[in-house]
Amino acid sequence: MQYWPVPDLAAYFGGEWRLDREIHTTDGDPVGEVTGTATFTEAAGVLVYHEEGELRLGGHTGPVTRTLHYRPAGPGRASVHFDHGGFFHDLDLREGHWTADHPCRADHYRGEYRVTGAARWRQEWAVRGPAKDHVIVSRFTRPAG
Hints:
The protein is mainly beta. The chain contains 1 helix and 10 strands, in the order αββββββββββ.
């Protein structure tokens, strides 16, 4: 797979993205999905990620939001934190891809970022543990126009 190097996270991520997320079992069976938008804005030297969308999970449909803070750590790199301030994972996209790990209580998140062009990237999180066992694939594309 060909990756798109990202030496400047703010320049690449800045602005609005369309978000399409699939949630499925580790066997590939669909469980849910999210459609919405994600934006990156700079505030006090931090790149703030904010998503809003609609979740469809089983018989439930409802709104979802999430905010993360990408704190610069050098060219193409950041330390990603939850909105409440807790550490999530490191990120280095200078080669256009990155694998991250995040322990969450007894569960473990293994994430992969893949930047595949100027207007598209994706995250995939495999979640394993006693409370969770699923895969979350989020695709981001720049809106047309």
